[in-house]
Known about the structure:
Number of strands: 10
Radius of gyration: 22 Å
Mean pLDDT: 93
Largest sheet: 8 strands, antiparallel
Low-confidence stretches: none
Order of helices and strands: HEEHEEEEEEHHEHEHH
Strand content: 15-25%
CATH superfamily of the domain at 28-140 and 175-237: Cyclophilin-like
Shape: globular
Distance between the termini: 40 Å
Structural class: alpha+beta
Strand order of the largest sheet: 3-4-8-6-9-2-1-10
CATH class of the domain at 28-140 and 175-237: Mainly Beta
CATH topology of the domain at 28-140 and 175-237: Cyclophilin
Amino acid sequence: MKDLIKKGSILIVCLCISVCVWAKKPVYHYVLIKTDKGECLLKLYNETPKHRDNFVKLVKEGYYDGLMFHRVIQNFMVQGGDPDSRHAAEKQALGNGGPDYKIPAEIQETLIHKKGTIGAARDNNPAKQSSASQFYLVQGRVFSPAALDSLEQFRLQGKKLTAAQREAYSTVGGTPHLDGNYTVFGELLSGIETIDNIAIVKTDERDRPLTDVRMSMDVLTKREALNLERVAAGLKPKTGFLTKFFDLFSSRYY
């Protein structure tokens, strides 16, 4: 009997250890954005937790499904997230809708508006608080060193760009004049061409596409996120029987 109890205890301990191992959390949250012009995979920054958590919450609720990219400006950005766009009439003015709360600004010097980043839209409130739902994906353009010098002198009124900013904006491109004014809270890992595909659509005088460009979003599950990070680290994804078994004992998300 003692041996049986001992073996049972060992089995329980092993199961607990295994569950703990399989309960490892991903480093980041990821969101798959699907549009009429392609798909893209978004990584949300941990450095902006308020924006990250709010965005994940809305995506899980299906808040963005069926909404439009209602403001599109080529070589600048594509904006969406206005709930009024879900059933908007043709030529209806958009851009003022959203939840009845704002997100405190989480503007950081190292999180810049390089191409493929996601930023939070906002009105002109002095605290630079973000809209709870409206966002933009940065397209921008590539700047020459001379153009960056001119930007510093005139648009930035003498403020100098960092070495990291100059490197990003002269290679990847982006919208440097937005830095320090809006919260950047994530970046695309793939599908950056989707932004280009949206940005070239024809628009009206309010920058609304003449043909609706709609979106839907999904948060990657914990297992999908873990496997994504394993592949990024040069490891094989875990998809075997034991992985699926132990995943039954942990939450789908994290």
